[in-house]
Amino acid sequence: MNHTIDFILLGPPAIALVFWLASMIERRRSGSAEAGFFARNGGAISAFLLIAVGFWALALIVWPQLYMVEYSFHPKLPPSARFGPKDYYTLANYRYFLFGSPDDTSHWNDTHLHAFWTTIGVSVIITILNFAVCYPLAYFMAQVARPGTVRRLMLLLIIPYWLNEILRAFAFRVLFGTGGVLNAALIGAGLIHEPIDFIGDDVALYAGLTYAYVLIMMFPLYNALESLDRNQIEAARDLGAPWWRIHLDVVLPHAKPGIASGATLVFMLCAGALAAPLVLGGPKTLWFTPIVYDRFFQAFNWPQGAAYALVLLAACMAFVTLIMRLFKVSLSEIAR
Amino acid sequence: MSADIDLINLTIRFGDFVAVRDVSFKIAGGEFFSILGPSGCGKTTILRTISGFLPPTSGAVRIGGRDMAGVGPNKRPTALIFQNLALFPLMSVADNIAYGLRVRGVGARERRAKADDLLKLVALPGIGDKKVAELSGGQKQRVAIARALAVEPQVLLLDEPLSALDLRLRQLMRAELRAIQKRVGVTFVYITHDQGEALTMSDRVAVMNHGVVEQIGDGPTIYDRPATPFVAAFVGENNGVAGRVTRIADGFADIETPMGLLKGRDGAGLAVGEAATLFVRPERLRPAPEGFAARVESTAFEGHLTHVSLIAGDGHALTMSLGRDVSAQDLTPGATVNVGFSADDAVVLRQAAP
Amino acid sequence: MIPRALLGFYLLAFFTFLFGPLLVMGVSAFNTPSYPQAWPLEGFTLDWFARLFEDDSLMYGLRNSLLIGVLVSALSVLFGLAGALVMTQVYARARGLYYLVVVAPVLTPGVIIGISTVIFWKDVTAWTGLKPLFTGFFLTVLGQSSFIASYCMLIFLSRLQRYDRTQEEAALDLGASRTQVFFDILLPFLRPAAFSAAVIAFLSSFENYNTTTFAILADKTLTTVLAGRVRQGMTPAISALAVLIVAITIVAAGAYEIANARRRQPRVE
Q: What CATH number is attached to the domain comprising C130?
């Protein structure tokens, strides 16, 4: 079998083993009296923990990701030829993304690159928009409203999200379609004479995407704001600060982890959105994730699809790192 | 059934910090034994080692003659009453008490019967079905004791169980615990920083400081014949006067102090010329024409005693506690009074090393 | 601080934005035109609801979604529990890396999880001769569990923060074995968390599309059938489905509120 594959499969367990040994050595050296892993949990439970975490972390998280990375550097081959003599490592898939062909680097792959940057750019804008829309309500629920009101608002918020994203996107299609309510209202009000093609112009898509992830931003934001001691706001007001200064200097800094959390998730979901572009996209719509989808199910070029997927992953990771730097927040504060 | 406990050269270290330093003593079966000391003296550490949660760095623990090395807390004949009681909030009172029996496979009906019996023993009959959250502090205490007794331990370990209770409840529980111990006959190892508790409840007390046992004895011994300055000062109120030994005779020592020559029992086999401290309790001082002179700073009336703060010699502060039988009328702030005591009531000890 | 009127307007606008599309779609479910239309209202009909149940493909997808949801929920709760317990015990120096690994699925786009699951298991089942295992059903359960277990783990971790370990010591002291302590003390304490984790896991699985659409291969779930419908041809039957789901949600939420209110009542006195 291929050496890289061996490395991928054996590497992570080896790292885990090294940490285990290090922990045992440290425990022995410090003369600590704490019981070891097996003593603390008993035989049966220890086995359960090791098997469950081992399978989940390795077979479901680490190995598939590493394998996909490796896969993206292979050419498209039938299953039997993999790792055989005809197999080799190549950057062809990535070159395709950038230049539109495996070898020719003379022209840029305008379509795909355009889609990529549009996706990233629009996702950033939507994230910011999403935050702006959610912040007032989150603040209201966290600091101003009474507990009963909060609960009822919470329920109201959750109801739309019981629908899966396909149905939600569908609702927007009904709303924005050429025969839809919005167009009917605009024509009826005499503002326009011909229905506007919201869908073809991507307006429907952007509106739908903003709508789709409101709850994702709302919850971390609410939690972060809720933990702010009301007295701090009172103190600031008492010292004479106007309301916008209070938000800028007292509330927002405290809510940083919540904002970072919400922003990261919204961006990730937006850039990786598949349902909304599918339902709300017109013929000219360029969104990156459906392109990844096509690499798999239209071009049937799985290694290329893997490469494209990794490009998307890299973009998300870059965004997360940027947010972490910008907000000076650690990873543990981002995860809900 | 009760077991004796034997601690042999017990040392317990946490990294570089030595919590318990080469401690050895025996606790007799059926005894109510207290370990008394300030926070950080090592008493909780010893308790956790006896109960099996903390293996010693060196030395051995024997319970009922058996060496407990490698024996986990669930296999030892001990039961621990935690400082925060650690009752199981999701179980009823009866289920709490019967838990030890449940893990031993005892049937439900028998368990419930045993729990009800124990509730009667701790004077809480009939509350078996209540939830832990509905109980008062004192009731929770007793449920914790019942739960521990249910597994019929040979040794009961109590970790400052009364510290969370208010004063009246504490005094009530002191008598209760003593009564329960006598009734059941199990060895009690009780740790506390409150010397009043230790003295009223125990057969014997071990006084600990900085990981070392300073003295072991019964109440009167610890109180009247302290072996070290720490014990003398920690247990009860005490006046200490430093000086130099000038004469030893018949078990008494004379020491030269800023207040003149004072005499007390030789408590440490002293030699002439040694630096020593004389300790005499406030209640043993009284106005006496032959005593040394002191100036009254203030007086405080505390019911059965009046405490008089005095300044003597070169500014040395002393306390004199007078009962109702002695008139304190002349002792107004600023007045001078001569203070004396009987040599029998004072003890001279070697000065503590700096 | 902020004028009442502005607040009121904002709330109204916000919830109109939130519920508007739903209302529109809801109306179209009862409207006669065969293409979903909310305006103008041409006629009232319940036909589309009936069509829903006649739709074999949809029903099949629904059944699959329910089955997958239950399995994913069970697996994720187990993984999440194990993950949380290990997190509380892991070697301090390894904790950062461990956390990164188990939380990464939450921050990874669903499509990537779907893709990597398919690619990896395709080859693994081939090498280990477990080819029959390579089904859309199997892959979807695995793919979804990878990140849904992370949600469950976070829920358990949050509950564990308030756990009083001296209860474990008390149980041990009374003679319980470590396994007995796990089942008698720890699990009862975690029960509320396990319940919410299971519910959230099921719902996350049921409504998932991005990962499922890759992992399900040739098979179908409710969401993939719906997505297919939108491409082929939409009918108000889909609106009808949405109305049904929202109706069920409102009823369930109402029941939950009533049950909670009843429980909350006695303490007030």
A: 1.10.3720.10
Looking at residue A336, what is its pLDDT?
58
pLDDT of residue C267: 47
Which is nearest to C233 in space by CA: C45, C111, C55? C55
Decide: A242 and A99 in contact? Cβ < 8 Å.
no
Q: C194-226 burial, b if ≥16 CB within 10 A, otherwise e?
A: beebbebbbbbbbbbbbbbbbbbbebbbbbbbb
Q: Are A30 and B54 a contacting pair at CB < 8 A? A: no
CB contact under 8 A, A31 and B57: yes
Give yes or no for residue A174 having a pLDDT over 70: yes
Min CA distance, A147 vs chain B (Å)?
25
Residue C237 sits at the chain A interface (C-beta within 8 Å): no
User: H or E element: which one contains B55?
Assistant: none
User: What mean pLDDT is predicted for residues B29-50?
Assistant: 93
- Are A197 and A264 in contact, with CB atoms under 8 Å apart? no
Q: Residue A90: helix, strand or coil by DSSP?
A: coil
Contacts of A41 in chain B (CB under 8 A): none
Q: State whether residue A121 sits within 8 Å of chain C by CB.
A: no
Residue of A nearest to B13 (CA): A31
Q: Where are the domains of chain B?
A: 5-229, 237-350
**Contact C253/A159, CB-based, under 8 Å?**
yes
Domain around A295:
110-334
What number is the average pLDDT over the span A34-41? Answer: 74
A60 & A123 share domain: no
Q: Say if residue A199 is in the same domain as residue A276.
A: yes
A140 & A83 share domain: no
| pTM over cut 0.90 | no
Chains that touch A (3 or more CB pairs under 8 A): B, C
Chain C interface includes A41 (CB < 8 A): yes
Chain B: closest CA distance from residue C90 (Å):
20
Cβ A158–C253 below 8 Å, yes or no? Answer: yes
The superfamily CATH assigns to domain B5-229 is P-loop containing nucleotide triphosphate hydrolases (3.40.50.300)
CATH 2.40.50.100 fits B237-350, yes or no: yes
Residue A104's pLDDT band (cuts 50, 70, 90): low
A305–C115 CB contact, under 8 Å: yes
Q: Are A263 and A321 in contact, with CB atoms under 8 Å apart?
A: no
**pLDDT above 90 as % of chain C:** 41
Residues B202-213: pLDDT tens digits?
A: 999 999 999 999
Per-residue pLDDT of C142-198, as tens digits, reads: 999 999 999 999 999 999 999 999 999 999 999 999 999 999 999 999 999 999 899
Asked whether the beta carbons of residue B99 and residue C166 sit closer than 8 angstroms, the reply is no
What number of C-beta contacts closer than 8 Å exist between A and C? 273
Q: Is residue C242 part of a domain?
A: no
* B25 phi/psi in degrees, rounded to 5: -165, 165
Domain of residue C160, residue span: 62-221
Contact A155 C110 (CB under 8 A): no
Pairing outcome for strands B260-266 and B5-14? unpaired
The number of domains in chain C is 1
Q: Above 50 in pLDDT, residue A333?
A: yes
For residue A319, what is the nearest residue in chain C, using CA coordinates? C107
Using alpha carbons, list the distances in angstroms from residue C136 to B71, B220, C79, C117.
52, 82, 21, 11
